[in-house]
Amino acid sequence: MGKPLVYEILQKPATSCLIGICTTIWFYIQKKNIGYANVGLSYETAVEGHHWRLITSAFSHISVLHLVFNMSALWSLGAVEQLGHMGLGVEFYLHYSLVLVVLSGLLVLGFYHILIQKFKFEYFRRVTAVGYSCVVFGWMTILAVKQPSSKLELFGFLSLPISFAPFESLIFTSIIVPQASFLGHLSGIIVGYSIAWGLIHGMNNYWALTMLGWIVFMFVFSLKRTGAFDFNFIEIEQVTDSSLPTVGFVASGNSRSLQMDALPLQSVEIV
Questions:
Q1: Which 8-state DSSP code applies to residue 146?
Q2: Any idea of the CA torsion for 169, 75, 212, 208, to the nearest 10 degrees?
Q3: Using an 8 Å Cβ cutoff, are 114 and 51 in contact?
Q4: DSSP string of 188-210?
């Protein structure tokens, strides 16, 4: 007989909170009928200054199956929180979850940049990525290096050896789910190995809070700058250039909604 759910939640407080945040955001997106194009990350929107999408894309999911798959894997990977004796633990989990969210997203944009600028694959200019899988794949990789004997449990009945889980899952999702973002998942794996091998290290409470502070600042600044959300108490001097594309807004009662070109479903990548 397994452990009571409440007991497991207390053993994985950070994981439980992250699952709660992703689930709440998914319900909000469904209730407000928000499309993935409004919260997802693409090269085109990043160039236009929508840097806030680096965060919103990571915590958004386009379907309940997408959410359940990511959260099921994340729940299993929450075992990292219980490995304080191995130099991991809750603080390590929180610190490097923050690193994974930011660096994996930046790495995806870097891949898009190379494919667009060097290889002229214009398709990747408007591909929109959403989902927490970059972080999930990152933690799979870290756990595979730190504790290769552990298992990855999915949906409560599927069990994979963690040592092979990152690349097994990368291949499996690419075959089974055509929209799965190979580059997004690969980015999570690369950042995960960088953390596990000590190439990225030194995170502590000071640096984590400093990084979080800059993320919040850039999030609010880019929201205000792009006009995606109106912060009346923040004033940013606008520089108008008639040669640049503009983003318009459509009035809707007392609110403002972003007017964007609808993206075809083929242009979304699930991460």
A1: H
A2: -90
A3: no
A4: HHHHHHHHHTTSS----HHHHHH
Partner residues linked to 161 by β-bridges: 151
Question: Which residue's entry shows tokens 């390590």?
Answer: 92
| Per-residue pLDDT tens digits for 52-75 | 999 999 999 988 988 998 999 999
Q: Which two tokens stand for residue 223?
A: 């929201």
* Residues acting as catalytic residues: 133, 185
Mean pLDDT of 120-141: 94
Are 198 and 142 a contacting pair, CB within 8 Å?
no
- Tens of pLDDT, residue by residue over 223-265, are 999 987 665 645 545 444 444 443 333 333 333 333 333 344 4
**pTM listed for this prediction:** 0.83
Residue with tokens 């993206």: 263
* Residue whose C-alpha is closest to residue 102's, from 229, 208, 225: 208
Contact 152, 160 (CB under 8 A): yes
